[in-house]
Amino acid sequence: MKRSICVTGILFLFLTLLYGCNEEEPVPIIDDSNTFQISMSEGVTRSPESDAILDNMQLYCFSQDSNAPLSGNGGSWDSNFSHQLLGVTRTNMTLHTSQARAGDWDLAMVSAGGAVFTPPVANSTASEALMYTYTPGEIQTDGYRSRAHEIWYRMLRLPTIDGNTVTAASTGITRNASMVRVVIDRAVDVDVDSDDHLFELRGVPDKLSWGGTLLRTVSAGKYETSTDNPDVLEEPLTGKFTFTDNSAVETGTYKSDTLTFIIPAHREADFWADATTPNTNVQDTITHKMKVFVSLTRASGGGKFEKEAEINHVTRCNGILEVHIRMKDTGIELSSSITPWTDCFVDGDITHPYLNVSDQTITVYDGAASRLYFWSNQPADSVYVLKEGLQGTTIRIPNVNTLFDSIAGLNSPNRHYDPDTQSGYIDIAMLGMFTSNQTDTKIYLKTGNLRREIMVKRLAWSQQGRKGIATRYVGTFHRSEQVGERIVTWSNSGEWTAYIDDPENSGSHVLIDRLPSPAFSNGTTTSGLLYGTSPLNAETCLVSDDGAKSVSGNNTIYFRVGWKDTSPTDEPRYATITVRKGRNKPDGEIIQTLYLRQGEKPVAVYSRPNSVRFASFNLKPLIASTTWPRTIDFKGGTGTDFPTQAGSFFQWMNAARVRYAYAAYPASTGSWSNASPIYEYYWTESGSTLPANYETCPPNYRRVSDGATDGEPTGTSELRQSLWADPNAANATNTLTGYYADGFFDRLATGNPLGNSWVANSAVSLSSAETVAYKGRLFYNVDTKVSLFFPAAGWRRQTDGVLENAGAKGYYWTASSTVSTEVPTIPLGFRAYVLTSHRNAGMNIRCVVEE
Q1: What's the pLDDT tens digit per position in 379-417?
Q2: Which of 232, 492, 594, 779 is 20 to 30 A from 734, alpha carbon to alpha carbon?
Q3: Backbone angles phi, psi at 271, to 5 degrees
Q4: 334, 292 Cβ separation under 8 angstroms
Q5: Distance separating alpha carbons of residues 17 and 101, to the nearest angstrom
Q6: What is the largest CA-CA distance in the chain?
Q7: Cis link prior to 278 (omega < 30° from 0)?
Q8: SS3 of 516, please?
Q9: Rounded to an integer, what distance in angstroms lies between the CA atom of residue 67 and that of residue 530?
Q10: Cα separation of 228 and 24, whole Å?
Q11: Distance between CA atoms of 194 and 503, rounded to whole angstroms?
């Protein structure tokens, strides 16, 4: 196997001058016996070999600028170009020049086989003078695709050169380039015989300055350093994948070969630890991110699978950006990592043992599990986290499992590996919720004689964590076209496992993981549950599809729920997740059952004679309002955007205020009418004028009936026949009270509604009459898993309209009446039952379909 040595190149620079000169004097000629020399250490280069590097070495002098001192022993600065050192020759590993000028110089040393440099013009600054424009070439014979020249580069601040004085300095050089390696670890339904599997690397930077930085064009011939929006190639870099069967790892899957690209890379001032040693903890100093695009020919039907995704990591100078792609039903999943370019890959062969990780700094939020990926050419089952660690920089931790959920050792339940791909991951989660950020901790990943130090930042990011909320979630809700994450979390003590149940195969479409929401990094430590008052759309945050049917943890319960695909019909799909005590104990004691629903179409929890289908959302005015109360046209209401939102309050009817909606917030309406209601018992009885004049439900909807006005048996009650497991019972036993993850409530800070501290943290979006949302009560069918949620928004008092019981109870009008002043309603507090309420009270309405 071809062997290439892959260690950063080190140069030693010796300067000897016989006499001084200035720019007005002729350039002195120096005898070779006392020449300006650069000596290269043996065995410190990779392909291209040291001969090629030295043969192409060019030396340029920039005048030192006292107002722009050197930073980081070799970063970028704004020296002005003076002249090029000419007549450079080589003897073995030593360079000689026949001329040099006295003075203080910043010396730029560059070498690239065949690269066309743009010479700097007089007085141009190093950081803004164009050095090199990348022009991609054809596929190379050594297996590299679209290979940029590996520019070996360093600017060194030289000491003063005086005549007849021996002057010496030393420095190191490294590539001003980055290697990008791309592989598809998992693909399905691909035509392995096709030669039309296309890959594109998009947004590749193409210009470097003489200061080693990426450039953006300002105007013709003018440039500036840019870390966020550099000039990029007009066309993407391309390559073609070939696939091999990977069924030994996962039936029906394939794995690709590796595509390799070498591209220009930005180098910042912190690159050098000292004059000869690169900094191992160099920061990613650019924010510009590239994208990948894959176009794969399917085996079934010959169609195309085409997806684009952004690479999470940015390139690093003299580093390798590893990109691993997994093909999913709904898209592609990327994982990436940065490693020093100290390991060389020739046609995919590894010449040295290595242990690569996706991140050297990883952030963990409360109960979420941050995933650390690893790759090694050592046996994957030998990679593990050491038991000992460090807190801060000096405090020894005898057992990191006292801080994190079982991450140490080969038998860690959170350690996963694939012996075929020699890769794996470790899920890192804290043991509990915290009211403040915790001290950074160092853990160590080990295999054989290799070891990687990982800095773990422990953040109390979520509001649940800061308040230690123990309120449980009772279910999740997605509209039929929604698949994104729903966050489920609450405080807990001890190990647990959440299992997806599978009624009629609908559970096979449910996704579950413990990874942190992508939105965690979009806020501050003072944000709410996820990101304060401006949550990202949950549909932009997808749950990973790794085939898991359960997730486990210790103490804090945290997991994300999503769907693989949109609902194929307009009928809702249902599933459940059962959370049990213990890790991987399917028969463990049940902590909670959550009812999952995808689809907003109206439903009856139980289908019986006289049952009706309930809308999924509370009623509100069709047009948003800032002035309350407001009138609604006949049948002019509409549903809220999310099931947890309160909607509006309505009186049963009011002759003085026909079809008025009252705000769900604030506590006082500012205007209220307690006029005597029209005396009619029942909206649907013969001759009633109420439906034709007072109905606020939208077309094809109406209010639900609790039976006839003469107190007939509950068999005529649409309400109880539709929702109650036992329609003859006084209370509904098939209910759960708690939070509901609908893509709104689970993404905002919970708070105390209107000063009611006894129902603390029961509401979100508290300051908005349009969107305020509450915890509530879920009705469910234990057999079919059908579920329906009602928020507990309280009511407005009949005498003055003051809001009461918000976050504790909910009240919903029926269309039935037994006496002249009272109407049966559905109160949703700690139990669900029917009581009679005054017609002038303000309550929510949940409409039903007119069959």
Answers
A1: 767 899 999 999 877 788 999 999 999 999 999 999 988
A2: 492
A3: -65, -35
A4: yes
A5: 9
A6: 120
A7: no
A8: coil
A9: 45
A10: 42
A11: 39
Q: What's the CA gap between 223 and 124, in Å, rounded?
A: 11
Alpha helices in 519-641 (DSSP H): none
Query: Residue 206 to residues 116, 185, 230, 603: CA-CA distances in angstroms?
Result: 13, 29, 8, 57
For 129-142, b where at least 16 C-beta lie within 10 A, e where not — what string?
Answer: bbbbbbebeeeeee
Contact by Cβ (8 Å): 533, 749: yes
Query: Structure tokens of 82?
Result: 């003076």
Task: Report whether 563 contacts 598 (CB < 8 A).
Answer: yes
Q: Which two tokens stand for residue 249?
A: 């790892």
Query: CA-CA distance, 620 to 727, in Å (whole number)?
Result: 29
∠ at Cα 393 (391, 394), nearest 5°? 80
Q: How far apart are CA 77 and CA 83, in angstroms?
A: 17
CA distance 201 to 179: 12
Helix, strand, coil share of the chain (percent; to 5): 5, 40, 55
Q: How far apart are CA 760 and CA 60, in angstroms?
A: 69
Q: Is 629 helix (H, G, I), strand (E, B) or coil?
A: coil
DSSP E strand stretches across 189-290? 198-202, 207-209, 215-219, 222-225, 237-240, 243-245, 253-256, 258-264
**What confidence tens digit (pLDDT) does each residue in 138-184 have?**
555 445 556 677 777 666 655 555 554 444 555 566 778 888 989 89
Stretch (H or E) spanning 365: strand 361-365
CB 828 within 8 A of CB 809: yes
Q: Which amino acid is at 33?
A: S
Q: Is 362 left (phi over 0), alpha (psi -120 to 50) or beta?
A: beta
Alpha carbon distance 522, 529 (integer Å): 12
**Quick check: 84 pLDDT over 50?**
yes
Tell me how far apart the alpha carbons of residues 611 and 600 are, in angstroms, rounded to a whole number. 18
Label residues 423-455 b or e (16+ Cβ within 10 Å = b): bbbbbbbbebbbeeebebbbbbbebeebebebe
Q: State how beta strands 361-365 and 332-340 pair.
A: unpaired
Q: How many helices (H) and strands (E) does the chain have?
A: 4, 63
Provide CB contacts within 8 A for 92, sequence distance 6+. none
Q: Is the pTM of the predicted complex or chain greater than 0.70? A: no
Residue 490 has pLDDT above 60, yes or no: yes
As beta bridge partners, residue 669 has none
Q: What gap in Å lies between CA 780 and CA 282, rounded to an integer?
A: 55
List of residues 6+ apart from 729 with CB closer than 8 A: none
CA distances from 101 to 86, 266, 300, 834, 850 (A): 11, 30, 70, 98, 95
> Distance of CA 762 to CAs 737, 743, 751, Å?
11, 16, 6
